[in-house]
Design brief:
3 domains; four-stranded antiparallel β-sheet
């Protein structure tokens, strides 16, 4: 066969490792083979090669996605279900079922039973707001939470044990608020811990609040009332003594007349009235001094005062200010980035949000630690205000007691002088006035005690537990399963997409259009997929369509042979398992049915298969002819089909392989051309072996068989370019495995033939083909 000129620029890079014809100085090719890849375009080592058709570099679109998933649907389905289910399970684990534990306390502004309270003792709206906020701070204060967690039945709960710092955990997670800004104080916890455990914890916090805040306030109130009650008892005893003394004087001087002048008596009576007035004021002042003392003690021991002092020092702490400033700066950066970017999930935003969460955690940890230190220091440190108040109380009490003693002594002296002057009526009158004054003092103390009792009772009933801790389970059930479902579906879709993308990397053939339009290789025919031998039985629709499709290839080949010499045809494929043997054998049978003497040659000498297909022995075939052990006419065997002969591959060895690379096959094929109308060679794959390239030098053209969903487009292109670069004519391609619906006219005729029905005359059959 005459050699053809070709350019080195047509040699694809993928042809490395396959022998190619050597180039002589005049530019003509030789039958000798050399290793490729030594020279690039224009003889430049490692020269640049063209990119090839667009289909080799096209992007991953919807059509590719569909075909890739169609090929890998089972793997995509199983892997998608597995990964999607695992993702859904992981999300269910990451977002566990949450429960809401809620307790309600009633905080009244002015209790209903405080009618007896004076109007000035009632809370104003502003005072009540301060009172409410104080209760919020006290309920989540560190000493209340520590008291609740220190109980053995609480400290041993799993929800408490697993937390490194339970107090910090409750400070961050426990929610206390006034819903709707009313009088209901809500204590709430939302989390995945066991509901029964969190009910105990919330109830323990409320009990600790009652014990550490409300109960201590009641105890201090009781202490103040006890002091007033003691003072009242003292006044009552003094009053009783005065009354007894008055009765004694009245009985003793009942019938005596006064011997003193009226002027002297009036002077003494005026002095006594002044002394009694001063004495009453001193005793009233004594009550005020005692009340002031108790109030000072109560304020010094008050939890609210301690918390106020702690919060005041915390507000002035510079380190706390730095943490808050750092948090403010981070919030400003987050707000700026969120307004500047359309997506809120940029890496910089994620990093800033993580920094903010870390800053919040550090702030809470530092605040708790500092609060604990301040509280311990204030408890151990002397109270200067209390010391000053107690000193003032001591001095005022001493001065007042001294004044009372002096006034009482003056009163006794004046009374004794009146007694000596015999003025019984004025004495009894003065005694009566003193009794009345003591009654007024005792009545004032009684009023104070009643007011104190009413106010204490109002304070006790102002805060009441309306609802103990109650759990509402599965508050996030819809969100939880929604997240798991969306995550599972997303993981399923991403898995399917990933598998399709991996499959896309191999760019397998989707259909004949990618060969014809994509690679520019002429498609001679498309053959249906043959799943089993049963599908090739007589009368089967697949067998009928396969035979009809092969006849189309035969018609194209015979039509080309009239204009071009197409006597020797090599059927090959880019790689193995792409249907070259099927196409070669059926094409030979089709040519035989057309009345052409046809020889079928098994050119795949390394892995022959035609001898099995026709039930003939492997030996005495092409390899023996190449080794000159047998004449080619003696190696040809007739088959059961009239007009079809077979040349098997023979027993292959390295001598036979090397003989293909020499000029020995040329006289063999010249002799075969004289005896047969068509010679169909079932060749080895183009890529990876040199056998097909060697045989290609003696054939009139090559039919490239490819398999849908198996052949890789890049390898098809490489094989075609390699054949063209060696000057081997590429007649076209046959696409196997194409889903073709059989024409009813074709199947009806084949079924009729299978049932032994009347056959058409040979001339009619030949005219239809």
């Amino acid at each position: 066969m005459a050699s053809q000129d070709f350019s080195y620029s047509e040699v694809p890079s993928s042809a490395a490792g396959v022998a190619v014809p050597a180039i002589v100085p005049n530019g003509e090719s030789s039958q000798a083979l050399v290793a490729p890849g030594l020279y690039g375009p224009q003889g430049i080592p490692g020269g640049f090669l063209p990119r090839g058709p667009e289909i080799l570099h096209s992007g991953f679109d919807q059509q590719w996605l569909w075909h890739c998933l169609r090929r890998r649907w089972l793997m995509a389905l199983l892997m998608g279900l597995l990964i999607g289910g695992a993702t859904a399970g992981l999300l269910l684990w990451l977002f566990p079922e949450s429960s809401s534990i809620t307790a309600l306390l009633l905080v009244k502004s002015n209790p209903a039973n405080t009618v007896a309270l004076e109007q000035q003792q009632r809370l104003t709206p502003k005072d009540f707001e301060i009172f409410q906020q104080t209760q919020l701070a006290l309920l989540k204060s560190q000493f209340v939470l520590q008291s609740a967690l220190s109980k053995p039945e609480i400290s041993q709960l799993d929800a408490v044990v697993k937390e490194p710092d339970p107090v910090l955990w409750l400070v961050e997670e426990l929610r206390v608020s006034y819903p709707g800004e009313g009088e209901i104080l809500e204590v709430r916890y939302d989390g995945e811990e066991k509901p029964e455990e969190m009910e105990k914890i919330v109830d323990a916090v409320i009990a600790a609040y009652d014990s550490e805040v409300l109960n201590k306030r009641r105890i201090m109130s009781n202490e103040t009332r006890s002091s007033l009650s003691k003072l009242q008892d003292e006044v009552k005893r003094e009053l009783q003594d005065k009354m007894d003394k008055y009765a004694t004087l009245a009985e003793q001087y009942g019938g005596m007349e006064s011997s003193t002048t009226e002027n002297d008596v009036n002077v003494l009576m005026a002095d006594l009235r002044l002394i009694q007035k001063q004495l009453a004021e001193a005793k009233a002042l004594q009550v005020d001094i005692e009340v002031m003392k108790q109030l000072a003690l109560q304020q010094a021991r008050s939890v609210t005062a301690l918390e106020t002092a702690v919060q005041t020092e915390l507000a002035a702490d510079p380190m706390l200010g730095q943490y808050q400033e750092q948090k403010y700066n981070i919030d400003s950066q987050i707000a700026s980035l969120e307004s500047a970017t359309k997506r809120g999930n940029s890496p910089q935003l994620k990093q800033l949000r993580q920094m903010r969460a870390k800053s919040d955690q550090d702030l809470q940890q530092y605040k708790l630690t500092k609060e604990r230190e301040i509280r311990d220091r204030l408890k151990q440190a002397p109270n200067d205000m209390l010391s000053q108040t107690m000193t003032e109380y001591t001095l005022r009490k001493q001065a007042n007691d001294s004044q009372i003693a002096e006034l009482e002594q003056d009163q006794e002296d004046k009374l004794e002088e009146l007694k000596q002057r015999g003025a019984t009526s004025p004495m009894l009158e003065m005694q009566q006035q003193e009794i009345e004054q003591l009654k007024e003092v005792e009545q004032g103390i009684a009023i104070r005690l009643r007011s104190w009792d009413i106010e204490a009772d109002a304070g006790q009933k102002r805060i009441q537990v309306m609802q103990p801790a109650t759990a509402t389970e599965n508050i996030n059930q819809i969100q939880r399963y929604s997240i798991a479902g969306v995550g599972g579906v997303a993981a399923f879709c991403l898995t399917c997409y990933g598998i399709a993308l991996i499959e896309f990397g191999r760019r397998r053939l989707n259909g004949p259009d990618q060969v014809d339009e994509g690679l520019g290789i002429r498609v001679l025919g498309a053959l249906p997929s043959v799943s089993s031998r049963k599908s090739l039985g007589p009368g089967n629709a697949v067998a009928a369509q396969l035979s009809e499709s092969i006849d189309n290839v035969r018609a194209t080949l015979m039509h080309d042979s009239t204009s071009r010499h197409r006597q020797v045809v090599l059927v090959s494929s880019p790689v193995t398992m792409e249907g070259s043997t099927t196409v070669a054998s059926h094409l030979a049978l089709s040519l035989t049915r057309a009345g052409r003497r046809t020889l079928l040659v098994d050119g795949d000498i390394r892995e022959p298969s035609l001898h099995k297909l026709f039930g003939m022995p492997l030996g005495d075939g092409l390899c023996e002819v190449l080794r000159s052990e047998l004449d080619v006419t003696d190696a040809i065997r007739a088959t059961n089909t009239e007009g079809l002969w077979l040349l098997t591959a023979g027993l292959c060895d390295m001598d036979a392989v090397h003989a293909l690379a020499t000029d020995l096959p040329q006289p063999i094929f010249e002799k075969l051309r004289e005896e047969f109308d068509f010679i169909v060679i079932d060749g080895a794959p183009v890529l990876g072996l040199s056998d097909t390239l060697s045989l290609g030098q003696y054939v009139d053209g090559v039919i490239l068989t490819v398999l849908r969903d198996h052949s890789e487009i890049r390898k098809v292109y490489q094989a075609a370019e390699l054949l063209k670069s060696l000057g081997i004519r590429l007649i076209g391609a046959v696409v196997n495995g194409v889903p073709i619906k059989a024409d009813r006219r074709v199947t009806r005729l084949h079924r009729a033939a299978a049932k032994g029905a009347r056959k058409l005359p040979p001339k009619a059959v030949r005219s239809q083909s």
